[in-house]
What does this fold into?
Amino acid sequence: MRNDLSHAYNIQVSKKTMNKHLLILGCGYVGTKLAKACFKLGFHVSGTTRSHEHAQTLKETGVNPIIITSPADISDTILKQCSHIVDSIPLTRTDNIMFASQTQWLSILTPKLQHLEWAGYLSTTGVYGDADGAWVDESYHCQPSSPRGIERLKAEQAWLNAGLPAEVFRLAGIYGAERNIITRLMAGDYKAVQWNPPHYSSRIHVDDIVATIIAAMQSPRTGRIINIADDLPLPHADYVQQVAAMIDAPEPIILTPEEGKTQLSVTALSFFSDNKRISNQRLHNELLPKLHYPSFKEGMIAILSSKEG
It folds into this structure.
């Protein structure tokens, strides 16, 4: 399976994208992948980071690195040049408290973005909270059950209420060739909870996230919210057992919910306590009729093939 998004999704350089300037706030794993794809569209790309080491990595990939602690520190010159923005900044953590920093700096940026054509905020499906296993689409009422989900929802609202041409992408669990569960499973002693009834969760390959963002940039709709998840929601315990079998790893240790409370951290347990199946129907209808990796199975096969190669 080719890992060339320009080929897979018919991405071509056009007059509409030549000389456009994309600013990626928090240019980490997804942002770096997006930058590489956008170069093929003719974009100039700048990316923010707090790390001097990561700034050098960005520079080597062709991204103009901006080392800052807050987007409020970005120069007016850069902001005036921006035609597109992607916000991939994680929640800020201080003194065991996490919060959405967008509520502090976005209003400062807004009047300076004089030529902004489009913005996208990368959120999480965690904003929905628990749905008792129901299918959840973008119209579902958000009732986040974790501080992380609550703050992500605040960041979404900050972007949607900023008066900018912004849309929101709610991402399922991200994996890819460089970031996946393979190493942890191969190490053995991986523990997962088997809930009763089963608790469903969803995943998405990083390449399909990038393809979705590019499709949205090419067909923008202010105020739109899109779930980015693959076609196969699956209980986490089932997922890790199937992946372990695919890679010939030791069988994961399957815990009861009671055992999970004593053997797993509160954070680890909270990731899989919510029970929902993320609907990607809007994604298919409006942006990507077909995913490059419809489920983790195709994604893992591609990852394993690349490692063997």
